[in-house]
Write a structure and sequence with these properties.
The complex is a heterotrimer of chains A (230), B (241) and C (255). Chain B contains 6 helices and no strands. With 241 residues, chain B is an all-alpha fold. Chain B has a domain of 164 residues. Helix content of chain C is 40%, strand content 23%. Classes of the chains: A mainly alpha (230), B mainly alpha (241), C alpha/beta (255). Chains A and C meet through α1 and α4 of A and α2, α4 and α5 of C.
Chain lengths: 230, 241, 255
């Protein structure tokens, strides 16, 4: 094989660099997505409040849902850039493996979604009056692992949905049922940590989340070639 | 460039004769099974006639997995062989599977309301069946929203495989999330009177499932065969100049 | 004197050829294999290629052979399948039926090898708006397998050196075409597949396209050019084909 792992990874990094540079220059995109996530949080507050106890109990679920809804837009955008002006065709004509495109987009989306979730977590702690849990490094870990799970599948399904008719509807329709395990583990883990992890269950949810991440990363990586080629 | 490859299979519309007979037999067997289940077998000691839903609910739920197994096999076959027939078979099975999943959910709710007092409980089997229903809907929506046949086949095959593989994961995760579940029903844990009724229904529903999938598949083949005739005509004109 | 001049000219051309061939760095045995395959095969060998979109047949048995060193034109009405044929030859679309090979590599079975050889130049620029001209080409350099020219040299060649650090967002369509041409020249393909390459280009731009075709052809490569503007392409193209009813037929160049 002339295409060594290093060469493929260099391509993936080039794609990630290109996507992140594009995102950084058009700040409006990121700002809009974050604003949407914050709006959803606010609406959750109205829907569940004003009893602060109820709001606090619902915080972990609300924050993950807000992050999920907003990040769907990010996944759609990441392929929209390729579709405007026919860039995808050029991208597909480079001789290397197309999986480099998946990995590159995954890395860029991961940075985007990771930052988004972090902002949403901080905002929801303020809005929903959640005190910073003692095990905050574990919360960071859940944010990271949750972002990986959501992004692994989101990047993959965006490659399909963005090139179909009715892409706005199709992406969440395809993605959300698939994300049930990731969402469950992320929300339950966050909930346990925010409540002080009295039952000692956060660790189990975190390892479960890591397992789902691995599975979905592998699935996306293996299936991307066939999907982008069609 | 050594071989001349033909991507399109030679697809001919299937002969309906034997299958029509099979369909009559399948529906007749369903009728017989219902007579045995509803009329002949006695009502349940605790639940009375309510239990009779189980004669259809359980076979339909099991056969729904038969449908998704066909989707999985068809999808893998498509990705390996690029055979259009495999894609059409997977699509047909997915349609039938979606209907059966909907029926499973509806019958399950009808049973749950008087038994548990609620229409719905977040139990692993119920929840993962609902997720399965949503996955099947998404699969069919994807097929409806992609026009190019080859692209549609590739995408729905991958989506189908990933969805099918995700179902046990969803099941386990919901199970860990909440463990308010029943013991799995299987013919061996039931009284002998039920066993015959359930087995009869299982067979009858399987036959009907096979018939439905085949009918849908035959319709898709006929459609595709007409298109291929148009292609043959176009290519044939090339020879004539 | 005359003979001397002719010999000198011939020598110059040979050196020039060698330069073009030699400038493609051979970095792997795979590329070496490709080089041997190239020297013995047709640049384009399409046999009865058919392609449908849904139930609409765009190509119904298009056959075309182009030898190395040939630059041919393809004309046809809108929707006659010219772009579809180019996309099949560069592996972006799979043929529904029939076979096509580029320098001996089947577009289906050896798609990756085909991609190493072809340079597709579609009407859409395929550039990233938020990146500068240089960054766009830097991306090309990082993604390509055998980067020969540097982004700056390529920008210089197409006359965009002065705009290297400007974002592509503000470029006119003509400037975008030039930038796309710079990408094509950087990748140095053996087979050029150009789809309406003269659109939105001024006289200098047209000359640049023709120079690219000439350089490729003189290096043993080939070009298939879809054109409406036959006058611009006439100086560099040797044969013409027409695409009608989904099939290819030789065409006389309209005088």
């Amino acid at each position: 094989m002339s295409d060594s792992f290093a060469a493929e990874f260099a391509r993936a990094r080039a794609v990630a660099w290109k996507d992140l540079t594009t995102e950084r220059r058009s700040k409006a995109g990121f700002n809009a997505v974050v604003s949407l996530a914050l709006t959803i949080l606010l609406l959750f507050g109205f829907a569940l409040g004003p009893d602060s106890g109820a709001v606090r109990a619902a915080a972990p679920g609300a924050l993950w849902l807000a992050a999920l809804f907003a990040s769907v837009l990010a996944f759609g955008r990441s392929f929209q850039v390729e579709l405007d002006g026919g860039a995808l065709e050029m991208l597909l004509l480079y001789p290397g493996s197309r999986r480099a495109i998946y990995v590159g987009k995954l890395l860029a989306n991961l940075a985007f979604v990771g930052l988004l979730i972090a902002i949403v977590v901080v905002a929801s702690m303020v809005l929903f009056q959640v005190t910073i849990p003692r095990a905050w490094p574990a919360v960071l870990g859940i944010i990271g692992l949750g972002a990986v799970g959501v992004t692994a599948l989101g990047t993959f399904y965006a490659a399909i949905a963005s090139r179909s008719r009715a892409r706005e509807v199709l992406l969440p329709l395809l993605l959300f049922p698939m994300l049930v395990p990731v969402l469950l583990a992320a929300v339950q883990g966050t909930k346990a940590l925010m409540a002080g992890d009295l039952m000692n269950e956060a660790g189990a949810w975190i390892s479960l989340l890591a397992g789902f991440d691995l599975l979905f990363l592998l699935a996306g990586f293996l299936a991307f070639d066939a999907v982008i080629d069609a | 460039m050594t071989t001349t490859r033909q991507e399109t299979d030679v697809i001919a519309p299937p002969a309906p004769g034997r299958w029509r007979l099979f369909g009559v037999f399948a529906i007749a067997s369903l009728v017989v099974a219902q007579v045995v289940a509803v009329v002949i077998s006695p009502p349940d000691r605790d639940m009375g006639h309510l239990q009779k839903i189980m004669y259809v609910h359980f076979p339909i739920a099991l056969n729904m997995f038969v449908c998704y197994l066909v989707v999985l096999i068809g999808s893998v076959r498509y990705l390996m062989l690029r055979s259009e027939r495999a894609d059409l078979l997977a699509a047909s099975a997915a349609e039938v599977g979606a209907v059966m999943t909907g029926l499973t959910l509806a019958l399950g709710m009808l049973w749950a309301k008087p038994t548990w007092g609620v229409w719905w409980a977040w139990d692993p089997r119920l929840t993962s069946t609902l997720v399965l229903f949503l996955l099947a809907t998404a699969y069919l929506a994807l097929r409806a929203f992609v026009d190019d046949p080859e692209r549609r086949a590739t995408w729905s095959a991958t989506v189908g495989i990933l969805g099918a593989l995700n179902v046990p994961i969803v099941y386990m995760s919901v199970r860990w999330w909440r463990t308010l579940h029943q013991v799995q029903s299987s013919p061996s844990s039931l009284d002998p009177e039920y066993v015959i009724g359930v087995r009869l229904n299982l067979t009858a529903v399987l036959l009907v499932t096979v018939y439905l999938i085949h009918s849908r598949y035959a319709a898709a083949l006929t459609e595709r065969a007409a298109e291929n005739r148009a292609m043959a005509a176009a290519l044939g004109a090339n020879h004539g100049g | 004197m005359l003979v001397c001049g002719a010999l000198a000219q011939l020598g110059e051309r040979l050196v020039c050829n060698q330069e073009v061939i030699g400038s493609i760095p051979i970095r792997s045995t795979r590329l070496l294999e490709i080089d041997t395959a190239i020297s013995t095969s047709l640049a384009i060998d399409a046999r009865r290629v058919a392609r449908r979109f849904g139930s609409r047949w765009v190509l119904t048995g298009a056959s075309l052979s182009v030898a190395p060193g040939e630059a041919v034109g393809l004309i046809g009405e809108n929707g006659s399948g010219k772009s579809t044929l180019l996309r099949i030859l560069c592996t972006l679309l799979r043929p529904t039926a029939g076979d096509a090979a580029v320098f001996g590599f089947d577009v289906r079975q050896s798609a990756r090898d085909v991609r190493r050889l072809v340079g597709f130049f579609p009407p859409a620029p395929g550039m990233y708006e938020e990146l500068t001209a240089r960054e766009n080409l830097e991306f090309v350099r990082r993604m390509g397998e055998q980067p020969s020219a540097s982004p700056d040299a390529a920008l210089e060649e197409v006359g965009l050196a002065g705009l290297a650090d400007q974002r592509v967002r503000g470029f006119s369509s003509g400037m975008l075409r030039r930038l796309a041409l710079a990408r094509l020249r950087m990748l140095r393909p053996r087979l050029l597949l150009l789809d309406e390459p003269y659109n939105n280009l001024d006289t200098a731009g047209i000359a640049l396209v023709n120079a690219t075709i000439r350089e490729t052809v003189s290096g043993g490569g080939s070009a298939l050019v879809v054109v409406h503007d036959t006058a611009s392409a006439a100086p560099v193209l040797t044969r013409w084909f027409g695409l009608r009813g989904g099939r290819v037929a030789p065409e006389e160049l309209p005088a």
